[in-house]
Amino acid sequence: GDLRQASACGWPQRVSMPGARALALGGSRGPGALLPGPQPAADTRPQAGPREQAAAEGTGRAMASGGAECARLQANGAGAEPEAEAGYAQEESECSSRRWGAQHVGARELAELYSPGKRLQEWISVILCFCLISFNFYSLLSYLSLDHTLSVIVGIFAGVITADFLSGLVHWGADTWGSVELPIVGKAFIRPFREHHIDPTAITRHDFIETNGDNCMLTLVPLANMAYKFVSLSPEALYQTCPWECYVFALAIFVTLTNQIHKWSHTYFGLPRWVIFLQDWHVILPRKHHRIHHVSPHETYFCITTGWLNYPLEKIGFWRCLENIIQGVTGQKPRADDMKWAQKVK
User: Fold this and answer.
1) Which ranges are annotated Low complexity under compositional bias (predicted)?
2) What pLDDT does 312 receive?
3) H helix runs in 199-234, sequence order
4) Predicted TM-score (pTM) of this structure
5) Confidence (pLDDT) at 240
6) Between these two residues, 70 and 173, which has the higher pLDDT value?
7) Which of 177-205 are b and which e, b meaning 16 or more Cβ less than 10 Å from the residue's Cβ?
8) What DSSP element (H or E) covers 81?
């Protein structure tokens, strides 16, 4: 594990420390770690020196300190519960850094690339996806029995784990490789990942369709295949395959909801109590846990459905190993396009 602080040039640098255990116990090296600030007396973490503090303060002054997003955060933060207040304080730190915020040049350009054609694709995907989910759920209930109890529980758990891993794989791939300039996939699918790193709170301003459209599109094929089985196979065959279909259905549901869960992990006000309960018990991605990913250069904790696999994958260096292999074969540098947009100033 490691902690990141602001370097003299305004970019975070690694500070080696045995942080893996701290992270597992609930510690965070989230966005707030970018800018030095007062630490509790018991905190033994290294502090930024005068040069680093001056650089960070200069960076904050260089931004339009009132920026629309920061003003909203400050207004909403008044009178908030302590945890939410702390969360918004960290989001404000993002606004005061030249790497984050809705006023960032790169963030504005990326937001403008959201097109009417993309919106239409998202609407179609959401409508078809939820129609298939409803049909398949009703059909599954028709074939479930008590004999399936254990296998269904195992299947659902396996579906959640698989969804978490796939969310990390897709997230890592889109964060690390590719370019917004790529035909078709660039503006349609890589663009949101670039925007999110520069303006992490943008996702909280997206409506249900924009938030979930792409994930709904990803699950259309498995859900359609499941629906075809329900209308074409015999009742005996469906009874035998019911546990497997429960696995596929759980996988599809959690993949579909991954970006909604991701949005909730950036939302500090107005969340339903049941969502906060699920976050606190780590059934879905917790807010503090996800902050670890939002430390530049965004190279860890990619799983965003439940986050269960983030610590073990980081412990074995899974993502670093994949990056080294791909860089060795192709010569491409990880996250080069992400850095290009982050450094855009005009």
Assistant:
1) 22-42
2) 97
3) 208-218, 220-232
4) 0.67
5) 87
6) 173
7) bbebeeeeebbbbbbbbbbbbbbbbbbbe
8) none
